[in-house]
Structures are given as C-alpha cells and as structure tokens.
Amino acid sequence: PPSYPATKGHSRRSPLRRMLSSSWHSDTRCGEVSVQGPPPSRSRSTHTDYNGGFVLPMALQLGTVLVGSPRQDGTISIVTTSAEADEPRRVQFPAPGPGSALSPGLPRWANYVKGVIQHYRGGPVPGFSAVMASDIPLGGGLSSSAALEVATYTFLQQLCPDDGDLVAKALACQKAEHTFAGMPCGIMDQFISVMGKEGHALLIDCRSLQTVAVPLADASLAVLITNSNVRHTLAGSEYPARRRHCERAAAALGKASLRDATLAELEEARSRLGDEVFRRARHVIGEIARTAQAAQALQHRDYRTFGRLMVESHNSLRDDYEVSCSELDELVAAALEVDGVYGSRMTGGGFGGCTVTLLEAGAADRAQQHIQEKYSGTATFYLTKPSGGAKALPL
Ligand code: ADP
Ligand code: MG
Known about the structure:
globular, 4-stranded antiparallel β-sheet, alpha+beta, binds magnesium ion, about 40% helix, disordered N terminus, binds adenosine-5'-diphosphate, 4-stranded mixed β-sheet
C-alpha cells in the first residue's frame, strides 16, 4: 500500500500493520475511532461498522449481570432492575419448543433477551429464572443493549453450552437486535462486548471480522466518558436512515460497501448523489481512514495524533453525518478547553448520549469540573479503563 512503508515479509509486521496493509490501499480511504463499551456492555455502533469499515472500541468498566438457574416447568421468567420507566420489570413466557418460535412483543426490553434465546446456537434453551442488574445508562450510547444481549448469551452458555465460537456469538447477538428489537445495528457493540480485552482497544475490520488488540494501558492516560443525559427521539429513525443513505451511495458508486470507495471516486459522483448522500458517504469514507490512522497512532503512543483524529471524527459526525446535537457539541467543546485533553468526540449512534475524551490522567478532575461548569445540562462522568469482555462469574 502506498501509505505504508514497505516491509520485508510477514514475520516483521505487527498484526496491526498486517491487518491495515492487507485491507487498506490508499491514503484517501478511511475508518472510525470509537471508544466504548463495558464488560458485557459497550457503546452503540458508530456508523462505520455497517459500511464494512474499521472500528476501534474498548470495553468499559460498567456491565450487565444476569444471575439465574434452570427450572423444570418450561417457563422463562426474568426480572430486571433497570428497565425504562414506562415498562414492567418482570416478564414471563414459555421456552421455545421444537415447533414454537419466540416473537417480539412487550415489554420492549424483553425483546433483546427473546431474540438471543431464539438465535442461541446451543439450544434448545430450557426454562430458567433470572435476575438482571446493570450500571450502564439505558439508551446513552454505551450499548446497554449489546451488554444485555451478550450477558444473556453468556448466561445461556452456562445452561446449555454452545461450541464457544466468539465471532458466531457476537453475530447471533447482533441478529437478535436486528430481528427482535428492529434496530439494524452494525457489529461493533456486540463484538467488543464479547471480545473486549483489559488494557486494550480493539481494532475490528468489520468486513473480514478480524480483530487486533491495541494496547491502551498507559498509566499517564485516562478515558473520560461524559453522559449528556439527553436522548433525542430522532435517534431511532435516523440510524436506519443513515444506513440507507450509505447503501445508496455505495450502489451509485458500484461498490459492495463504502469500505471499497475512495474520496476521489465519491467526488466524481458528487452531482449524481445529491448533497445529503454525498456528505454521509464523505463522513464514512473519511472515518474509515481516520480509524486506521488512530489505531496506528495508539500503537505508537502518539496520543496527540489520536486526539486530533477524535476531534476530526466529531466534526465530521456533526457536519457531514449530522448525528450530533447541541449538547454533545457543548461537551466536546468544553473538554477541548481543558489543559491535558488530547481529544474528545461523541460516541454511539448520536442525538444525545455520551462523549468520550482522551486526556492525561492528572487532568481528569479539572476536566470534569470544567465540563460541568460549561455544560448547560447536568452531566454524569465515568472515568474508565479498557476492560475485558463478558464472562461467567462463579457464584
Ligand atoms: P444503548 O444500547 O445505547 O444503551 P439502545 O436504545 O440500543 O441504547 O438500548 C437501550 C434499551 O436496551 C433500553 O431501552 C432497554 O429496552 C434495553 N436494556 C438495556 N439494558 C437493560 C437492562 N439491564 N434491563 C432491561 N432493559 C435493558
Ligand atoms: Mg444499543
């Protein structure tokens, strides 16, 4: 690839370099920097995953826990401690039998669980009782939904083991969200929730589904998640709309996905695409490149470059992809005024939710103070480190 120095054979290349050089061949192509997720949870998909691009999430030190045991009457009974305010916290339904499939219904939160049970790869799932608790904000862009799916799947693995294939696990959870929650999400959230690695961000090639862990454990560094505590209702309809725009752009360029497109090709097709679709595609193509660059910067502990890419990412999400909102823009602007902050951007699907800020560990207190002072709303902060993915906890 022209953008990388030539290397003499595979053994001298790092896994990161191998992944990037095999799949990225022009300096006008792009990816996405996204820092997210917890031990079974993470942030919502960030718009390059469903375009076959790169994403760079991390799992947060937040999580969803499911505790339960099998029961003999063929009933599944679940209680959650943290449903949306308008929903009952308990649900009960028959376990799916050979001829009876589950279908989505109410309460909405149970659809994530039902979808995972339906798509579980080690079934048939027997009856069980379980209680769920989570410290992840619901709908805050930190992917409480993937946390719920992956926690459920991990629980089912204890009840009736599957073959343990991690990629298939993440894909089954994604399918559950598509078919039972009606959200056409990419694969990032479920992947990082399953595969998060302590002290590392995870570069995921969403086309090949290969992953490379990139160290992010520098003691001088901190990751600050700031929740705007707003959720604009647009999020539900705009996400699928963005996805359709990207598909339209790829089709117009004669590409399987925007991963295969370059900015030069996009520019050529500008008049055919119309301004809106053009800008959506420009974000995605640019973001895929930024993500690849960010992974390299992180590998080299070049936090300044990483931070600059985060800011470019935010600006592109705001101006070209139009998924930010005034609250997220305020939080990012305030963070960037603080000495010791490398970069900041929105994370998740947008229209509210959280920002992620990379900063010197010593700046964490003053950053929180300053952001809260400048923010017109009330922010919640999570100072976090990259954590591991979902696991069974012995009782
Ligand atoms: P995000 O994934 O960014 O948090 P989503 O809208 O994708 O936002 O998912 C949020 C939804 O997931 C909630 O409205 C709720 O239905 C469900 N959910 C997540 N975690 C839990 C939980 N612990 N208990 C019940 N429902 C949950
Ligand atoms: Mg979600």
